[in-house]
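Friendly challenge for the regulars: who can give me the structure tokens for this chain first? No prize, just bragging rights.
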Amino acid sequence: MSIIDLKGILTPMTALKQIGKQPHTINFPDEQKDISPRYRGFHYNDLEQCIGCANCATICMNEAIDMVALAGIEGQAGDSGLRPQIDYGRCCYCALCVDVCPSGSLNMTQDFIKVSPDPFDFLMVPGKDNPDAKDKLSFTADMDTSLNVFDRVPMRELDPEERVKSFAEVFLGYNEEEARIEASRCISCGLCTENCPVHMHIPEYINAIAKADDEAAIKIIYDNNDLPEMCGKVCTRRCEDVCALQVRGEAVAIRWLKRYATERAENADMIAEIVNPEIREPNQYKVGIIGAGPGGLTAAYYLALRGYNVTVYEAHKDPGGMIMYGIPKYRLPYESIQKQVDYMKKVGVKIHFNTVVGKDITFDEIYNNSDAVFVAVGLQDAWNLGIEGEDADGVWSAIDFLGKVNSGEQVDIGKRVVVVGGGDVSIDCSRVSRRLGAEVYQSYRRRIQDMPADLEEIEGAEAEGVHILPQTIPTRVIKDENGKVKGLEYVKAEMISEGGGRPRPKPIEGSETLIECDAVIAAIGQKADYSLLPEHILAKLEMQKNKIVVDENRKTSIPKLFAGGDAVVIGRNDAISAIADGFVATKAIDKMLMGKK
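First reply, four minutes later:
Bragging rights claimed.
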């Protein structure tokens, strides 16, 4: 017998060593095998917690994850409406997708057995196709081991005790190192872009900053925002409200990164050199724009780039509208606004300052000599408090108060001031009053957590010594014998919940309280002044609650008349919404006029 034949006989006999050992196989499903507590089986996704950011799909090296729409899950602010679907024929169970899940919704389980002759059964939507797996989690999206960085780079700012001594800018901005680190936190999910009224290319310019290409970032930013440095300082940053990282940590500092990039261009010449926009050949069309605020300037800039003969009519001596006369200089310095407007002039925007429409030039003259008109007048009139004694000397509207201070006029508010209101404008009034040396109390009819003002601004005001009086309702202004403000009477309020909405304040009988003061500043809202429009236009112009009704293209009920900004029905009363209106109107006007060719 040969050696080969002998080996063939003896080799099977080596299996005898397994006699007496426990088998590796089990009688499934009657028997269960013990597995590691951290075993990586099929995924489970909490479909309610998931925001559809697609970070899992982006990082998967096997391209095993697709984002799919599911019945009953709708897209909304901060949620794409899509959910991950995993191809387990491709998945290697590395769990990188779990490590980068910003919301913590995607995890892995001890569930790993599936038998089916149909290969499409292994295309699974975690959380939908295996809802019971939520009780078998093994490898979870732990914040301590996550590949995401949840803490933002803090912004340096002036000490509160020092900053109330002047109107120096409070926030100092990122330096290069800080900007690079903060920009590298972005996961490029794009949820921010969807929530931005202008739909800025946010992940693109942040990635450019992270790669140390600041000039590319500036070019990307100016593609659809002509006032980006302003936005980088005072934007209401709805983009950050939906940042994927804010679900469990801190949002990427989108606003501050925009500020960092745009400040690299130190003057209008540098902006022009870097952006170097394409300017079309002049066409025969003229566009008149009323108001040099964010909406009007935006329409003027992008129409000028498209070759239109654009003229802006502005009642004040400086551009910017409410961002110039309503936002304090410690938040938005004058030089920053002027630099951006100087750049616009370089591309052909013409602005007639100190020109009051309806007085220095008629609306009909502008309308009849233009192929299209865009009205962006903002809200220039203040709402009254509607209480006894508000005609006293020393009662200010927020618009008049901030306007005079920003214009450099001397303002005497005395030693103690009461500001009435709870929005950003009221906080501005309080912080400006502190810089003028006054002791400041702020009366708000609801709770502090109900204040519509930016939390960052509220905290800044409190740090600067502003005393907020929540749940207080002013009832009358007290005058002295000369008709000057002597004090403010208010009643305390209790919060009443009705119908599931936010609680409303109800005056508490007998709680009248008097606070002595030298001035009262009313910051409870503004309304538009339409005195520039002639009667025959007002008669045909569709209005709703003292605001102009426009369609999705910002077109009014009057032929070739468009409107945007705070004075229109749609949108919010902030600068970025006005910019969006100007951008939308630009495209609509361009389509209307060039369509005639």
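DSSP finds 21 helices and 24 strands in the chain. The chain has four domains: 27-139, 160-274, 280-379+543-594, 382-526. Your move, everyone else.
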